[in-house]
Predict the structure.
Amino acid sequence: MSLNNFYKINKYQIHQIKLKIMKTTITFYLCMMVLSVLAFKNLNAQGDCDATTNVALNAEVLSPWNWDLDEYGWNHKFVVDGITTSEENAKGFTTDFKDSLRVDHTEWVRLDLGKKKKIGLIKLYPRSDDFGHGFPKSFTIKVSEDTLNWITVVDTTDYPFPDGTKASEDFLFTDQDARYVLLTATSLDPIPESSPAYRLQFAEIEIFANCVTSIEETSLNIDNVLLYPNPAVSVLTIETSTNNLVGYTILDLSGRSIMKGLFKENSQRHNLNIQQLNSGIYFIQLDQENENLVSKKFIIR
């Protein structure tokens, strides 16, 4: 083979190598562009989630009793008017106001949010004028996009009678897309003031999104860690079956660290002062001596 032919062959091979490098580079940048677009869409999707807006405000309310007694302070619209206490002229929502229902029975109330919303937290406010009376003993909460297919998000039996230590009873669950929210009370407490009668009553119902996307409860032994009370007000107690917790970090829903510290005592129970934190949904990450990270969700009201 002549030197000239050898040069031509190597020049051709070099050209082919350059083409392959160019194609690989173009493919790489195209992949990066696609990933960037997907990431941007994901960030926008997360940004659209609003955990601070009460989507039940001024919702349409339906129950078997489609009448109101404004002169006594009872009206369907009062349960979604944004007032969480029972006022003289706006006590809240009630079912049958007659004195004929002397036995326990089933009642229900349904909220139409107007359009599909992302929801993950329902706050039920008991009457505050005669605190707790009318709050259901056993009930379910279901959500639906079309009133045909329902998903049960809350199912509770013999729920403790509200004692007035907190303004609302809060029920947190994984975010669901829903337009309709149906609360069905299968057992009611008798209302003494009514001689007695069994009624379903609330001062207010609020509904919020949960908005937890990037943070999840994680642990190899998450059942071994308890948080209470949850919801909390000023103090959060952490209890574990071992005494190997060394530190903590409290995160908001965006994943931002807003409070951290070390546990001073080698104990199975720790009390955290959370008075400086605003009401909302948080995660607490707990560091253990074996370096396993525990992440648990809690609410501050």
User: Anything to note?
Assistant: The first helix runs from residue 3 to 47. The chain is about 15% helix and 40% strand. The first strand starts at residue 60 and ends at 62. Helices lie at 3-47.
